[in-house]
Fold these 2 entries.
Entry 1:
Amino acid sequence: MVIKNPVEKAGEHTLGVLYSNGKVRRRREWRGIRDTLYDYTRWLYLVSILARFVVKPRNVKGMFRYRWMSNYLAVMHGMDKFTIGLRDEPLRITHTAMNFVIADVTKAIDDCFRGDRRLGNDRAFSDRCVLTDENAMTAFMMGFPNVKAILREVPTMFAANIFNQNSTTHYLDVAQEFGIPGDVCPMPEAEAGISIDDDFCVLGRCAVQVNTTCDGSLMGNGLIAKRLEREYGIPTFQLVAPMRHREEDVQEYAAEDIRKAIAFVEEHTGQKWDWTAYFESAKRVNDATRKRIEQLEINSTDYPQFFGSVFSLYNDTNYMGNCGRNADFVKIDKKLLALAEKGVKNKRMAAKEYRHRCIVWGVQPQYCIDMLYWMLQCWGVVPLTDMLSMVNTRMIAEEDTPENREQAYYDMAWLNENMIMRNRTHGGYKVLVDELWEFCEKMHADMVMMWEHMSCKALTGMHGQFEEQARAKGIHLVWVSHDLCDPRVFSRQAIRDQFSSYMRTVMREEPLDPSIEVLPDNDAW
Amino acid sequence: MSKTLLRFFLKLFAALFGLFAVTFVIYFFNLDMKATSLIEPIFLKHYEKIPRKQYV
Amino acid sequence: MRDLKHLIYFENLLQIANNELITKAKKDGRICAAYTCENVPEPLLNLGNAFSIRLFAPHTGSMDIATYYMTNLLCEPSRALLERAIEGGFNFADCVIAPDGCTMMNRCVENMELLHTMEAGNEHFFHQYMEIPLKGDENGVNLCRIQCTNHILKPLHEHYGIDISEESIRRAVEDHNEICRLIRSIGEFRKEQYPRITGYEFHVLTLATYVCPKYLIKDKLEETLEELKTREPDDKPWRVRVLMAGSEVDDSGLIKLIEECGAYVCADRFCFGSFPGREPIPLTEDEDALTQVCRHYTYMCQCPRMMNMEKVYGRKQYVADLAREYRADGIIYEQVKFCDPWAYERLLGSAMLRDDYGFPVLSVDRPYNIASSVGQMRTRIQAFVESIEIKKIKRGE
C-alpha cells in the first residue's frame, strides 16, 4: 500500500543537483531553515571532535605514518551520505547515532596511537590493552573494566571504508601481490593486506582473535597472528565461535573456550575478572537489546523512523564493539528511542511517498554507498531493517548469583556465536533463509533487497533457494550484486542500476526523484 | 557603563555573527571537503615514499 | 615398470561415484553412510552393517543446475557434488553426514537436502550436520565426542539399527587401521630413490579406499602390496621429487600430469590423501574407543580451518617433516579455485615453507577437473621442475 506524505518536504526536492563528478559534493543540502541549521550545528560538533583529535602531535604524526588515516579526511562527506534527503526526527536520529559512532571511532584511533610503539608508545597504557578483531563480539571483555579492548581493525579498515569507498583498494592489491586470490572476501583480505603492508598500529599486551564471519575471516587471522607473535611478540588467543550456533550441543564447547579466553587475558594483563563489572555490563546489554527490539517494532509500523545504514551501523557498534561495557550508549539509546517514538507519533516520513516496505538482506556494502537512502528518495522503497541488525533478542543473566556466574559463560558464548553477520551466514540455512520470510511477515515487507556479495560463499550458496522460495511466497526479491569494499568490481552506479532496472522492468514504476537515478559519483569518496 | 557594555555586546554579536557567516558558508558550500579533497593526493604520494617491511 | 595387476580395476572403480562395489555392498544389505569432509571420523561410519562412502564427482563436465543454485562463485567440488546429486548420481546413499566445516561444502549438502536429491524411496534416509572442532585441544575432543554421538551414532542406530557398542567401534577401528596400514606400507615405497610405485598409482589406490566399501577392496590392496615387494622399478631417475599439499584431488589426472612433467609426487598432504587421512588410530584399553577416535581426529587434523596457532605453525612443520622424510626437492601448494581456507593456507604455507624451511615452492590454483586446464597447469609444473633443476645445478648436485 502506497503511503503519501501529507506534509510537503521543506528545502531541496531534486537531490541530483548536489552531486558532482569529483570526490565531493557541490554543496550541502538545503533542508529548510530549521533543519539546515540543525545539520550545521552537528557539522560544527564534528569539526570540534576532529579539532580535539588533531591538536595532539602524535595524532598528526599518525596521519603521516598510516595510509588509512587519509580516509578520515572524508568524515564530513561520509556523514552527508547518511543524511541525504532527511528531515525532522529521522535527521536527528541519524545525527545522534552517527555522531556518537564517529566520536567512538575517533577515541579508538586516539587510543591506538597512544599505545602504538611507533607513535605515542605509552607502555603503561599499551600493557592494559588487548587487541581484538573488528568483527568480534567483545563479550569476553565485559568483566575487565580496567583493560581496554582495542578493535584495531575498526579504524584501520571498517570505519575508513564508511567514509571513502577506495579505502581498501591499496591493501587488496598488496594482499593479491603476495598471492591471496582475488575471489576471497575483500574484507579479511584487506585486513591481511594491512598486516602484510605493516600498516597496523602495534600495541597491546596480547590479542584475542575469533573466527568471526567466514572461512576467509578465520584464515586471515592466522596470517595476522603470525606477524603479531613472531615479529612483535604479542601472544594471540584464538577464541572459538561454533558454526551451528543454534544447536544445544555446541554451547558447552563455546562456553569452555570463553573461560579459556578470560584466563588468557588474566594471565597476560595481570588483571582479575570482575563479576560486578560483568553483571553491570550484562544489564546494559539487555537494555540495548530491549531498545533494539522496540526500534524494530517502530519500524514495523507505517512510519519507520530509525533506518538505513546508520541503523545497522549504530547497532553493530553498540552490540559488538561496546557489548555493554560503555555506559554512554545507554543514554544515546534512550535518546534515539524517544526521538523515534516522537517521530512515529507525528507520522513523520522521510520521503514524499512510501511505495514498498523492504527488508535488506545479505552481506552489505551499504556503509560505503548511500544506497538505502537512495532507494528511499529515488524509488520510495523503505528499508525497514537489514540482516546485520537481526541479532540476539535473548536476555542474558544480569543478577550476580553463583548460578548466574556459571550461566554467564554460556551467555558470553551465545553472544560471541551471534556476532553480526555470522549469526545469519552460519548456523544452517534456517537462520539465513527461513527466518527472512518470518521477518518479512512480522514487518509487513513486500520486498527484499538482496545484497549478493560475490565473494561471500555462505550467502551465494543459497542463491537458488532464495529465488525459488521468494517466488513461491510472492515476495519481490531484488538481487543487487557487489564486491563489498572493492568498488573496482562493482561501481556505485552499477549497483544502483541493478535496483533501478528491477523497479522499471518488473515493478513498472517511475522514480520519485529522477535526478538521482543516475549519479556521477563513481570517483567520489 | 551601559553604553560600553552595549558596545561590547554589539562587537561580540558582530564577531559571533561573522564567525557564523564564515563557518556557514564553509559548511553550505562544502568548502571543508573541497579543501581536504585537494590534500588527499599529497598524502597518498607521501605514503608511497615510506619504506615498509612488507612480508607475510 | 610392469603395470600393476589391479591398477585398471581400481581405475575403473573411480570412473563413476556409484561404482560396482557400492552396488554389491548394497545388495549384501549394507547401509551406505555418505560423507563429504575428511574431518568426519570415518571408522564411525563403518560400524556393524554400515559402510562409508566419500562423495565425489568424477569426470565432472557441466555444472549448470548447481551453478543456478549456488552461483559460479562457489568452489567447483561443492557444485560438482550438488550437480551429481541432482542428476541422481548419489542415489545409493542411505544418509549424508556433513560437518559444518568449510562453508561451501556445507551449503552444498544443505542444497542437497532442500532439493530432496537422495531420499526418494527411503523413508529412513537422513541428513546430519556436525560441528567440528576448530582447535586441537581437549575441549575439541569433548565436542567431537558429543557431535559424533548425536549426529553419527544415534541417527545410525535409530534409523538403521546399526550396532554402536564399544565392541563395534573397536572392530571398525581395527578394520580401518588395516586399510591404513596397507596404504601406508604401499606409500613407503615412495621413499625409494627409484620408487617402485608412481604417485599416480598410489593416488588411485588411496582414493579408492575412500570411495569404495573398504571390505571389498582389501584383498586387492593386499595383493598389490605383495606385488610391489617384488616389482622392478624403472632405472631412469625422476627429474625432481615433489610433495603436494592442498585441497582435495579427486582427479588422478592431475597427479599424472605432474608426473608427465618429470616431477615424482612422493607425498600427498591434501584432503583425502594418505597424510594424515590414512594414519592408523591407536586404541588402548584405558579409555572408551569413541573418545580415542575423537582425540585422534582432533589432534591429527591438518585442516586449514584448525585455527589455534600451534596448529597454524604445526601444519607447516608437518609438511616440512613429510617433505624431508620422503626426500622431496620441492613442494606444490595447490588450491581448488574459490576455496577460501586453502587460498589463505596456500599463501602462508608457501611463504613459510620457502622462507622458514628453505624449500622451493610452487603455489597454484586449479579447477576440480584438470581436463579443463591441462595446458596452463603443465606450463606451471614444467617451469617449477626446471627451476628446481637449475637450483640443483647451482648447488653442484
Entry 2:
Amino acid sequence: MALLEHGARRRLRRDRAVRLFFFAVALASTGTLGAIVLFLFREGLPIFEKVSVKDFLFGLYWYPTDDPADFGIFPLIVASVAVTGVSACLSIPLGLFTALYLAEVASPRLRRWFKPIVELMASLPSVVIGFFGMVIVAPFLQELLDIPTGLNLFNASLMLAFMSVPTICSISEDAIYSVPRELKEASLALGATRWETIRRVLLPASLSGITTAVILGMARAIGETMVVLMVAGGAAMVPRSLFDPVRPMPASIAAEMAEAPFRGDHYHALFATGIVLFLFTLLFNLAADQISHRYKQVGAATL
Amino acid sequence: MKKTMLGLSIFAAATLLFGGAAFGGNIVIKGSTTVLPIAQKTAEAYMQQNPSVRISISGGGSGNGIKALIDGSCDIADSSRFIKQKEVKLAVERGRYPVPFAVAYDSIVPVVHPSNPMVNVTLAQLKDIYEGKIRNWKEIGGPDRPVVVVSRDTSSGTYEVWREKVLKKKRVFPGALLQASNGAVLQAVAKNKNAIGYVGLGYLNDTVKALMINGVTGSEETTLNGTFPISRPLFMFTAGWPQGETLRFINFVIHPQKGQQYVREAGFVPLY
C-alpha cells in the first residue's frame, strides 16, 4: 500500500516536471519572438525623430547615404506590393488547378507520386531560384520581349510564383481532399458532371482552406528576400510598367544593412522598413488565421 | 559617444587581459569599410607570422576611424579619403599628429556588354548617363539601344568613389539598377547588351568590356601615374610616427612582396 502510494507520487512528480519543461520551452520560443519584435521597434522608431511618418511612408526618394539624406520608402512599398500581387496572379491559378487535378482528376497512384514532388519544390533554396532568374530567365525575357532589362518586376514575380505554388497547391489540395465524401457522391448522384461538382460543391466547401493557402503563399512571397535582391533590378522608383526594375523592401534591407553605420539614421530607417514589412506579413497571417477559423466547413450542414 | 566609450572600455579590458601575456602587443584598427578587406587580409597574414600579436579590426567609416584616432581609442585609422583640415586641428589640440600612409589605390572602371561597340566615354557623358539625362546609346555615338544604368548600393565604398569622381556629388537617378556587389554588377552587365556598370579594377574580367575614359584605359599603370580619372589613394593614419608593433605592421602592409600582394587579392591596385 505504502509502496503503491510512493510510486504514484513519483509519477505525479514526474508529470509535473514534464509539464514545467514544456511550459519553459514554449515560453522560450514565444519569448524570443517577442524580444525580436521589441528589438525591431526599438531600433526602428528613432528614425521618426528625423523624418515624419508621412514623409517616410510616402516619400518618393530613397537616398539614405546622401547629405542631406532622403528616407522615402514609398517606391519600396509599391515594389513589394506589386511584386506580390503579380506573383499571386500567376501562382493562384497554377497552384489551385494543380491542387484540383491532384485531388479530383489524377488517379490515386499518380497522386501518390505527384504530391511529394510538388512539395519538394518548396525545398528549392531561394538563392537557387534567384540565380536561375538572373542568369537564365533575365536574358531570355530581354531577348524575347526586346525590353531594356530582364531584371524587373515581372521576372521577380515569376520567380516568387515558383516559390509560392507549392505552398498554395499543397494546402489547398489538403482542403479539397478533406471535403466529406458524401457531398461529392450526392452531387454526382443527382446527375451533376465532374466539373459541375468541382465548381458548385468542392470549391465552395473548401473555400476557407484555399483562401488560407493563398494568403500563406502570398506571405511567403512578400517576405522573400534573396530572389528579389537578385532578380528585381534594385531601382528605387515607382514602376510604370510590368517590365520596370523595382526594389522591394526586403531587398533594400538585405543589401544595405551590412554597411549602414551602427545606430545611424540609415540603420534606423532600415529597421523602420523592417517594421513596415513585419506589419504586412502580420496582416497576412492574421487574415489567414481569421478566415480559416471563421469559415471552417464543419460537416455538410452549412453548405 | 556611447559607442566610443564602449570601444574604449573594451580596448582597456583587452590591454589588461593581453598586455602582460603577449610580447608583441596589440594593434587596434578602425575606420573605412573600403579599406577593411585590405586591413583584414594583411592582418591575418601578419598574425600568422607573428602569433603573439593581436590585431583587432572594425569598420564604421573613415570619419569614425579618424575620430577614434583622435580619441586615442585606436592605433591605426583606415581612411578612404585624406584627413580634413578640421580633423587635423582637433588632433593637434590633443597632442596627436596624424601621419598618413598610402597603402593602396582604389580604381573604378566603367564596363559595358562585350557586344557594345563603344570604346571611349568622357567623364561628362558618364555623369549624364548616371543622372538619367542620356537614355539611348546613339546620343553618344553608339547603337540605337536604350541605356540600362547599373550602379552599386548607396552604402558601398565603390559607389562613394563613383559619386565623388563621376557624379560630382549629384545623385544617381532612381531608375538605376542597384546591385549589392562587384560580382553582381559584372553579372548584370555581362547578361545585358544595353547595360553600363562600374567595378573595381581588380574585378575586371572577360565577360564585360571596359571603357576608356577621356581616352585613358583603366589599368594599374594609369592609376599609379595619375592619368586615370576615377581613382583615389587609400590611407592608414597613425597618431605620430608609428612605433613598435604598429610600425612593424605598417611596414608589412606597404612592403611590395608582403602586404601589397594582399592588396591585389582584395581587388585594389598595389602601390608599386
